[in-house]
Amino acid sequence: MSTAGFRIDAGWVVTPDDDGGVQVLTGVTVAVRGTRIEYVGPEAGLPEPLRSLERVDARDGIVIPGFVNTHNHAAMTLLRSYADDLPLMRWLQEKIWPAEAHLTGEDVYWGTLAACAEQIRSGITAFADMYFFMDDAARAVDASGMRAQLSRGLVAVTPGADRALREGVELFERWHGHDDDRITVALAPHAPYTCPDDFVREVLAEARRLEAPIHTHLAETLDEIRQLEEQRGLTPIQWAVQVGLVERPVLAAHCVHLTAEDIGLLAEHRIAASHNPISNQKLASGVAPVVQMRQRGALVALGTDGACSTNHLNFFEEMRSAAWLQKVTRMDASALPAPEVFRMATVDGARALGYPDVGRVREGYRADLVVLDASAVHMAPRHDVVSLVVYSAQTADVRDVWIHGRPVLRDRQIVTFDERRAVEECRRRGLRLAERAAAAAGS
Ligand SMILES: [Zn+2]
């Protein structure tokens, strides 16, 4: 594939429109030069200079904007299947934190690269990541070709919080805006239950100075709600407003347990909620009031959370879970229909990460594009292409992926890095982490 550009001749293009819906175009050509889409329309109208671009045949395929995964702890691929079937606090305190104490930067590099492979194969082209050894994570993201908003997770109930904040600031200074804004950086006070107010104010002062956005966790479990109520007499959303976090753009993972007032505050202060339906089910956190949030005008996007809590960085499963959860808890089959879920997975995710030109297949937008092979039996017949993408498509249908105008997956092969090695390293290093945690617990 030349770096000059390419054109995709697509059977269908599915893209969010300007009126809260989703548009389906049939038999169109998408032309890309540099990092951006230059043309979307009938082949006959393709401007002359774009006609000679290398041609990708997707006449039996569906072109969609890449999915935007608004919450991940990418290197937690290393801990997949290590700590299942436990409630959040025991999961963190007994399993995750003791194992993470043995992590190295190289572990995070390979764990992140494995997460990139898994995400790309699921049609995800951009993600928000919160973890540590983030310089190593950034190197992996850079090598993978993915778009990402990175952040150093800040926990201030254990020693080293000041050093962590310094690392978060250094990450911003080193990586924010990298490769024409393919990589951006946020500051990430982990959650109200791990960050005292004084510390959050220090983080906020840095965020103001750097003009950095905030990535955090809010209102994930009832335990968190009770604890905050006892200690500060506030809900997590009230707390975020009162401590001043909302002075910067806030991306809040989970937002499961909300009062009517909380939902109003989310909309008023433009807090973007990252809904993580599989993690919330598996950790028995609860069901986020997605329909009410959207009705009140709050921005709700989709996220996987880390591979240790969701076990599979699979956006098709997340989209379906999001839809099914709203339908079954509201006993209303019309709740959160496929086009709304598709928007949450694409353009709403892009807005949540502060990308003005991502999440649509449209001229001038970044060329973060996915071709779904629509030839499999589960994609027939094609009465409703949006429904097929949201309710029927599988990760195996993801045939090609471009990010920032560059090929990342071609004919189901990752072309930016050695995927086999990433898998092997992830396997080996994950087992070593568990051994070290067990040895430390036994000593
Ligand atoms: Zn999380």
Helix and strand layout, with pairings?
Blueprint lengths: L4 E12 L5 E12 L2 E6 L6 H4 L2 E12 L1 E6 L15 H13 L4 H17 L2 E8 L2 H11 L2 E8 L6 H15 L2 H4 L1 E7 L7 H14 L3 E5 L3 H11 L3 H7 L7 E5 L5 H9 L3 E4 L1 H6 L7 H6 L4 E3 L12 H16 L7 H8 L1 H6 L16 E5 L11 H8 L5 E6 L2 E5 L2 E2 L4 H24 L1
Parallel strand pairs: 1-4, 5-6, 6-7, 7-8, 9-10, 10-11, 11-12
Antiparallel strand pairs: 1-2, 2-3, 4-13, 13-14, 14-15, 15-16
Query: In CATH's first tier, which class of the largest domain applies?
Result: Alpha Beta
Q: Tell me, briefly, the overall form.
A: globular
Give the oligomer, counting copies of the same chain as homo and different chains as hetero.
single chain
Q: Specify the CATH architecture of the largest domain.
A: Alpha-Beta Barrel
- Percent of residues in helices: 40-55%
- Proportion of beta-strand residues: 15-25%
Query: What is the number of domains?
Result: 2
Give the terminus-to-terminus CA distance: 55 Å
Counting DSSP E segments of at least 2 residues, the number of strands comes to: 16
Q: Specify the CATH homologous superfamily of the largest domain.
A: Metal-dependent hydrolases
CATH topology label of the largest domain? TIM Barrel
Determine the mean pLDDT: 96
Radius of gyration: 21 Å
Instruction: Decide which structural class fits the backbone.
Output: alpha/beta
Number of helices: 17
Enumerate the distinct ligands.
zinc ion
Going across the biggest sheet, name each strand in turn: 3-2-1-4-13-14-15-16
- How would you sum up the major sheet? 8 strands, mixed
pLDDT < 50 runs, ≥5 residues:
none
